[in-house]
Amino acid sequence: MTSPVSTFETPVSSADPFSYDVLEDPLPFQAELRAAGPVVYLEKYDVYGMGRYEEVHAALTDWQTFQSAAGVGLSNFRKEKPWRPPSLLLEADPPHHDAPRAVLTKILGPREIRRLGESWAADAEDLLDQLLANGTEFDAVTDLAAAFPLRVFPDAVGIPKSGRQNLLPYGDHAFNAFGPANELVAKGAPRVAELSAAIASHCARDVLTPDGFGAQIYAAADRRDITEAQAPLIVRSLLTAGVDTTVNGLAAVIYAFATNPTQWDRLRENPGLARTAFDEAVRFESPVQTFFRTTTRDIEVGGTLIREGQKILMFLGSANRDPRRWENPDEFDLSREPSGHVGFGFGIHQCVGQHIARLEASTILTALAKRIAAIEISGPTRRHHNNTLRAWESLPVRVRRA
Ligand code: 4IA
Questions:
Q1: Which of 93, 230, 234, 237 gets mutated to test ligand 1 (max ligand atoms within 8 A of its CB)?
Q2: Which distant-in-sequence residues (6+ apart) come within 8 Å of 134 by Cβ?
Q3: Best substitution site from 90, 226, 246, 390 to test ligand 1's pocket, by max atoms within 8 Å of Cβ?
Q4: Whose C-alpha lies nearest to ligand 1, atom 10?
Q5: Total structural domains in the chain?
Q6: pLDDT per residue over 294-310, tens digit each?
Q7: Which residue minimizes the CA distance to atom 2 of ligand 1?
Q8: For 165-221, what is each residue's pLDDT tens digit?
Q9: What is the CATH number of the domain that holds 166?
Q10: 383 phi, psi to nearest 5 deg
């Protein structure tokens, strides 16, 4: 008898997850990735990829082995200088991560933000009244999914009125910069200095209104929960992570309803489903599609030995449609229990702003469900390509008033 030898070979893919075709429609590539195996070597970038729920969930939970401090983009901060000072939350691990995280967890907690709900409801009603006064056809991206977060979130943070037009372009570049240095990054490069300066100017203590999240972050510095130097970077996190994500999350849920009218009927019958609908849309569309981790030790996953210091691409969108975990994953279905999706990440880095995002979404959906009996796509839809985001450029819709 011969001695047992391992015959396992890690599947290799030559595909580019950041190519035009994949960004336009990531689903076929994700299906191939999941079928290939639990861990796939992506040779174009010399990284490993995980596309199945079980391994993605396990890696996100094991922050000791799969670190964030080397950056959650393709760039390895151990070897390359980051394009901006690293985020104190996203691009940090314990113990450095703990104080900033604790401060934001408190400020953005479900109880703390409840007071915002009432004024946001009035904002949502007002926005829809104005929109519908102009007719029943509009662009659900610019007129609704972008308009609503831009109306309520910057005020909640407490940044000045001027310069807010920089928020989306800055976020768009930041999310592109997690990917490879492709043409999407090149397109953003000429404005990086200008946009970074504009965002930084919104993070200073003296420009923030006294009642917003920004002021609360500085109050935490006054209590010595964080240092004074950390405060502006934590405000920057809100401005980076809180705009493009919610815009595309709202666009995702509106698109899902426009293309699944029976689900819209269910929401109208039971507006209490608004939060579930948003989470189901985050699962279904996964506005944040991918993130990297870096291994801190050699580890075996699904028969593959991954060496210390390797970048691993976590396909959140793929895990959220893994048929091993989800029944009929390609259906947008309000009767499912979407919690457990990894669209907000998982583990110690799981989205600290998710209660804000849910509040924004449920507020606008509740107001919409009151006024709108039906919503349909009325023209050609256009994706917005971004290395990290599954995003929309345009969603022309026609609505029928209730
Ligand atoms: C930050 C994952 C994504 C939503 C995100 C982006 C930026 C930051 C945090 C999260 O700048 O801290």
A1: 237
A2: none
A3: 90
A4: 241
A5: 1
A6: 999 999 999 999 999 99
A7: 241
A8: 999 999 999 999 999 999 999 999 999 999 999 999 999 999 999 999 999 999 999
A9: 1.10.630.10
A10: -75, 150
